[in-house]
Every structure is written in C-alpha cells, then in structure tokens.
Predict the structure of YtkA-like domain-containing protein.
Amino acid sequence: MRQFSRGLVLLAVVAVLTVGVACGRSASSEAPSNYQVTLAVEPSPAAVGPATVTVTIRDQDNAPVTGATVEVEGNMSHAGMKPVFADAHHQGDGQYVTEGFEFTMGGDWILTARVTLADGTSFEHSEDLPGVHGDDKHNGDHGDHDDHEDAGH
Ligand SMILES: [Cu+2]
C-alpha cells in the first residue's frame, strides 16, 4: 500500500507539471493551423544588445506567405519590464526580418510575432527564448551595452 500511494503522488506531480506547461503556452494566440510561423534569432545564442528576429510564414502547402504586416514584440518572463517592439519587413521567401530589435536585458524572453495577412486575417505566434545572455542584474539600465564581461556564466 505504501508503494501504491507513492505512485499516486508521483502521478499527481506529473499531472500538475503537465498542466503548468500547457498553461504557459497560450494556445489562444497561436497561428491558424493552415499557417506555419517560425522565429529565428541572430546572433545565436542570443545576447543583450541589438538582435535580428526572422519570422518565417508559410501556408499549408509550405509556400512562402508574402504581403503580410509583421511586428515582433519581446517580453521577459518576469513582470515590470518594458516590452521591446520592432517591425519586420519582407526579405523574400516568406521571411520577415526585424529592424532595430534589441534585447535590453539578459534572462528569459518570450518573442511574439503579430501577423496581419494581406487579406486582413491576423494572428499571433509566440515562442520562448530562455537564457538570453548578458548582465542579469535587472537594473533597467539600457544605456550601457558595451560591457559583455562574462561573470562566470
Ligand atoms: Cu528583465
């Protein structure tokens, strides 16, 4: 009986973890199933400072989707941060590349692409980007980006 109840506890823990992960990804804002959206970040691994986010949009036939309006929003996983916004422009092949995006702090980020298609359909696609490298003091100082001293990470 002792063994059995330990198994139950384990099951309960797994169930809670599963629910937690499911809640973390807000399914309501994901792209319609007939579109695939992927995000790529340069430099990789990501670090504090200027970065380029490439949003690739394809339809259900894997054909590039052109003529969309795309904006990228970056948020950190903790509260109280000013989001970072950048417009992304089509560079061909369904790839939209941001101009002027910048990671203002090291840590865990969430990138969201807001897409409006040529026909007016709009949706969002979010991806977690954990562990952006940089100063993790969270001092909100956006003026100093030339200090990339590695403090033992
Ligand atoms: Cu932060």
Notes: Strands lie at 35-42, 49-50, 52-59, 69-76, 84-90, 95-98, 102-103, 107-116, 122-132.
